[in-house]
Amino acid sequence: MIITETDRKANELKRKILNLPDLPSLSGAVYYVSADGDDANNGLTPETPWKTLNKISKFDFSEGDTVRFRRGDIFRGFVMTHRSVKYCAYGDGEKPRFYGWEKNLADPELWEIYDPDKNIWKLTEKILDCGTLVFNEGEKHSRKLIPSFRGGRFCCRYDEDREFFVSEEMTEDLDIFCNHDLTLTVKPSKGEDFGIPALDWNTLGELYLRCDTGNPGKVFDSIEALTRRHMFFVGNNENVTIENLCIKYVGTHAISASSTRGLKVTGCEIGWIGGAIQHYFGTDPNYPEGRRGSVTRYGNGIEIYGSCDEYTVKNCYIYQVYDAAITHQITTNGKKFELKNIKYIGNLVENCVYSIEYFLDQNQGEDGSIIENCEIADNILRLSGYGWGQQRHNTHTPAHIKGWSYTNPARNFVIRNNIFDRAAYRLIHTVALDSSSCPRMVGNVYIQNSGASLGLYGTQSDACELVFDENNVKNTVGDGDGMVYFIK
Description:
Elements: H1 2-18, E1 30-33, H2 53-58, E2 66-70, E3 74-76, E4 79-80, E5 86-90, E6 97-99, E7 111-115, E8 120-123, E9 127-128, E10 130-135, E11 140-141, E12 143-144, E13 148-150, E14 153-156, E15 159-163, H3 166-169, E16 175-180, E17 204-210, H4 216-219, E18 223-227, E19 232-235, E20 241-243, E21 246-250, E22 255-257, E23 260-261, E24 264-266, E25 269-273, E26 276-284, E27 292-298, E28 302-305, E29 308-314, E30 317-321, E31 324-331, E32 338-345, E33 348-350, E34 354-361, E35 370-377, E36 380-384, E37 399-404, E38 410-416, E39 419-423, E40 426-432, E41 440-442, E42 445-449, E43 453-459, E44 466-467, H5 470-476, E45 483-487
Parallel strand pairs: 1-2, 2-5, 3-6, 4-19, 5-20, 6-21, 12-16, 19-22, 20-24, 21-25, 22-28, 23-29, 24-29, 25-30, 28-31, 29-32, 30-33, 31-34, 32-35, 33-36, 34-37, 35-38, 36-39, 37-40, 38-41, 39-42, 40-43, 42-45
Antiparallel strand pairs: 7-8, 8-17, 9-17, 10-11, 10-18, 13-14, 14-15, 16-17, 26-27, 43-44
């Protein structure tokens, strides 16, 4: 019964988000962009729109300007945002869509047979590293094979004495492998005596796909690659607003910001994000099975890494993200960071590994940093760890609220009136150095499978795994008004 009611609430919220009206521009010039526009136009009217994201990235906007993208159109590439500029929609129909790679790969001419005995195909064009491939708008997706790299060669991730050969390792239909044009570092980060692959935003390579039913360009109507790039790169630009857009098929972050203020993301649909390789290490003694070559994949829906102020994510629908749907985070490395006035309100998150992630890791003893005035309220967070991101090696991390077990100093941090609907591992993981920094939990709904975990809550010295039951919700976590539902 509770699942039926949660389904109803989630569908109602999704309809609201997908049909939010466009708001008027309040100041500055308004520029228009459409799929059939022309970058030689002036962009100042719907009849004279620009065409490409490259034009948007390079144009010298003034503070207070607005960029409007035509509804129903698809735009490919990425956007370098500008300070105090709003990016939003105009016209009728579905939200304008932003896809990460330059083309749909469902074209038979783009594929050639590599190993006919194993049904392995190779893309005829080079491409950035791919987090995964998504077929027919989400009907299916790939499993990404990621070998380790040790001693100048790729080797099998769980048997590093065995060299990685594409034809031997691609054992399942729709497996992919990205073979990069490698630039090797002189000194890998873990101090070994061999170089490791150094990926950047321009590292291209070969893409292999096993497709047992024939040429993938004929089998599928759409094949979208989640390539290694951000879609909206905010950086340090202040007062950026992103509103009523659809951002999909991006291999790193849909929206990425470093230390900034005034970032507002409202009414957006964000899906199928992440999974590209962030970096390789050398032999890592702690990662996680012992001395093996490690590879890190990443990708969040909306991320601030650094200080922030007046950061709002509201009424967004976010799904199928490799890491976190929404996050503010920083490892201080001895510097001071303040993450203040953060609001995550009225969002629907489904099938992400972490619905909402936060952390403030004071890894060098610096004690001046703080998370202050953070409100996570009225969100519906569903099925953490049940999406495609669970093809990761560390399957024991999913949670709807993921604060990890860092020092996480905080003041006035509240998590209220949310629905936490099932997680593959923990519903919550919120730990801090001292109890005053733990978020205050108020009136949330907790839904979990019988026998599964509620999670970790409390201080670093006393937090332990909590069985999912009403006593732990109301007394250990302190959510006296919380509602608890068991799913058999």
